[in-house]
# Entry
Amino acid sequence: MKRVLFIFLLVAVGYLNTYAQSSPSWLRYSTISPDGKTIVFTYKGDLYKVPATGGSAMPLTFHEAHDFMPVFSNDGKTIAFASDRFGNFDIFTIPLDGGQAKRLTYHSVNEYPYEFSNDDKSVLFGGVRMDVASNRTFPTGSQPELYKVPIVGGKVTQLLGMPAEEVKLSKDGLKLIYQDKKGGENVWRKHHTSAIARDIWVWDMQANTHKKITSFNGEDRTPIFTDNEKAMYYLSEESGSFNIHKIALENTAQSQQITTFKKHPVRFLSSSNDGVLCFGYDGDIYTLKANGKPEKVAITIAVDNKSNNDKVVPVTGGARDMAVSPNGKEVAFIFRGEVFVNSVEGGITKRITNTPEQERNVSFSPDGKTLLYASERDNAWEILETKKLKDDEPYFYVATLLNETPIISNEKENYQPSYSPDGKEIAFIENRMTLKIYNKASKQTRTILTDNELFSMRDNDQYFQWSPDGKWMLFDYSLPGIASGEVGLVATNGKGKVTNITESGFGDDRAKWIMGGKAMIWQSNRDGLKSVAQSGNRQTDIYAMFFTQDAFDKFKLSKEDASLLKEMDDIKNKVDTTKKVPKKDTISNVTFDWEGLTQR
# Structure
C-alpha cells in the first residue's frame, strides 16, 4: 500500500512539474478560425495553433524573427501574419496545416495584416507607405494607409489614404468597419482619454461615405460584425478597463457591455462564423459563446527553446546616451539598459552596472571621477552615482572596485540627471514635467521649471543645458497653448523669470552654449520645410545667437582683423612670467545684452 502511494505521489509530482513547465502564460494575438474549431496565437515570437477547446498547441512557425498578428482566411486554410524576418515587419502567409511561409510585401516600412478579402485572393493590411495629396492631413509621415496585396504576391493597391486599422469586411464586400487613428499614442496605454482616442467607423465603399459608430471620449477598438451585420462587437474602456461591448450600427445611442473584467484589459478580439468570441485576458486565452460565460482555454506547449538561455551579445549597434569623459580618453554609453565604459584607444570595455532594471542618461562628472545615471530601481526611476574606489586606477575601463550610491531616491520618477559645471549640483527631471536642481552638499532641491514651461509626451523627452558658469539654463520651452516650441532661458537659482529668447512662432529647440557662454546654436524650421498646422514633416537649419554685441561684432570680423585683434589683446594682457600670479577661474560670468538679442 505504501509503495503504491509512493508511486502515485511521484507520478503526481511529475505531472505537476510538467504542467507548470508546459502551461505558459502571456499568449497574445489570439484569433479563432471561421469554423470555430482552431485558435492561432503568438507565443515567444512564434505562431501556434490549438483546438478551441484547449489542449497541446503546435507551432506553425519556428523562426528567430518575431512572428505575430495572425489572421485567418475565410476558408480557414491560410494564416496571414506579420514578421520582421527581413528587418521590418512584412506580410507573410502560411498554411494552417504548416509549411513554408510566403512573403507578400517588400516595403521598408512596417506592415500589419487585418483581414482577407471575401474571395481569399488578397490580404488587407496597414502601413505608412504613401500619403495621398488630396487628404486634408497630407503630409502625415506617421499615419498609416490601408492596402491590399494578392496572396500570390504582386502589385499592392491602396484602398484608403487615411488611417483605418483592425478592418473587417461585410459579407457582400461593400462595407468595412475599422478603428481610426487620429494621432500618435502608445497602443498599450490604459484609460487614455483625449482628442486622438480611437473610435470605430463604417465605410460604405459604394457611396464612399464614412459613418462614426462610437462616441465615447476614451478608447474604442477592434470591431467585429455580428447579428447579420446589423451590429458589432468591439473593445471599449467605457466600462473602466477594456471589455467587450456590443452596439447596433443604426441605433448607436446605447451600447451593451458583454464582459465584466475589472483588473486587466481584454485584448485581441475575434469571432467565428457562428458567433463564438475569442479574446485575450491577463496573458491567457478565453472563448465566449452567445449568452454564455467566458471560458479559459487550457493550453499546454511542449517545445524546446530556440536558443540558449545565456548568450554573448556582440555590441554592433544600438548603443545610446553616449558621453565622453572630460579628458577625452573614455566613452560611457548605455547598451541593452546597462552602463558601459570604453577606452577611446585600445578598445577595452568595462561593464559598470549589472541589474535587471534599466539604466539610462549616463554622463561623467566634471572631474571625470564619477559616473551619473538614472535607473528604474524599486519600481521608480532614481538617480545614482558610481565612483572608482582606487586612486591608482585612473580610468573606469580598468577599475577593479566601484561603488554605486543612490543620490535621489523617492517615490517619484527622477531621470535625465546633469552635473553643474563645478559638479556641486545636479539638474534632473521629476515626473516628466518638472526641472529641479539638487545640491549635493545641503542635499536640498529647488524647483526651476514646472508644467507651466515644460510639456512631455513620453519619458526622457525634455532638453536642457547648463551655462558654462552654472548660473543659467537653456531649455526647450513649451509655451501653453502653442504647439511649436521655443528656446527658453532661466536662472538656475530658482528666482528668475523665464525668458523666450527665440520668439519665432515656429519650432526652435536643442540649444547649446558656444564660445564660453557668449552665444548659442540651435535648430529651427522657421525658414525650412514646415507645416504651419504642425501636422507634417519639418526641415530644420542650424542658427546662432550672440548674447552680447561685443561677441557679435568679433564674430563678424574678417580673418585678418580677427588675427590683428588677437595680437593686440596679447600685447595688452602681457605679464611678467617670472612673477607668481594667483590662479583664477577661467570661466567668465555669462552676460546678456537684451536689446536687439533676437537680431544677433
